[in-house]
Design a protein that fits this description.
It is a single chain. This protein has a five-stranded antiparallel sheet. Strands 6-9-7-8 form a four-stranded antiparallel sheet. The protein is an alpha+beta fold. Helix content is about 20%, strand content about 30%. The two termini are about 40 Å apart. It has two domains: about 80 residues, no CATH class; about 80 residues, Regulator of K+ conductance, C-terminal domain (Alpha-Beta Plaits, 2-Layer Sandwich), CATH 3.30.70.1450. It is built from two helices and nine strands. It is elongated and about 65 Å long. The longest helix has 24 residues.
Length: about 180
């Protein structure tokens, strides 16, 4: 567990710092005016500014950095799930020509695909977790689905054509 220290900086914002296992120090100053400063020190104990590095990030850059740093844990977690035999997690990018474009997700179980879950629909930068059957899908959306590889392939074929295949396509879906 990392010990994060928080210090209010009057008139500036808030400073969060922590010491790394190798003795380095990392800090983030979140300014009240919006930008953030990422600060690193090579050695937390020497008090010298000679090894200090500071980088100013605007709000979008700070969010991007946070996503990149946190995204590795999410990606690792999904990769671990992908290694579970019989489970496929895949992404379906909705195009204008796809049957599902402009339609509600609907209940695939009523069409014979039981055991498949639409985990989320990503629209722009917004995730819509566990969408209901009446959730309307638009071109540009990305559907995140989980189920057996055969059921995922069957659902993707339906999303593309509007026809439920009697057998799953020979190939597993490629995500888009």
């Amino acid at each position: 567990m990392v010990d994060v220290r928080r210090v209010k900086l009057p008139g500036v914002g808030v400073l969060h710092t922590f010491v790394t296992d190798d003795g380095g120090k990392v800090g983030v100053i979140t300014h009240r005016s919006g930008p953030s400063d990422l600060i690193t020190f090579a050695n937390a104990g020497d008090g010298s500014d000679a090894t200090k590095v500071s980088l100013r990030l605007d709000e979008d850059e700070a969010h991007t950095l946070a996503e990149l740093l946190g995204g590795t844990k999410i990606t690792e977690g999904i990769s671990n799930l992908d290694s579970i035999p019989g489970l496929s997690i895949d992404w379906f990018s909705v195009d204008y020509e796809d049957h599902i474009a402009g339609q509600q997700l609907g209940n695939l179980a009523s069409r014979g695909v039981v055991g498949l879950t639409v985990v989320a629909v990503v629209r722009g930068e917004q995730a819509n977790p566990a969408p209901a059957d009446d959730f309307k899908v638009f071109p540009g959306d990305t559907l995140v689905v989980a189920g057996s590889p055969e059921k995922v392939a069957k659902a993707f074929a339906f999303y593309r054509t509007g026809v439920m295949p009697t057998k799953a396509p020979a190939e597993t879906p490629s995500g888009g």
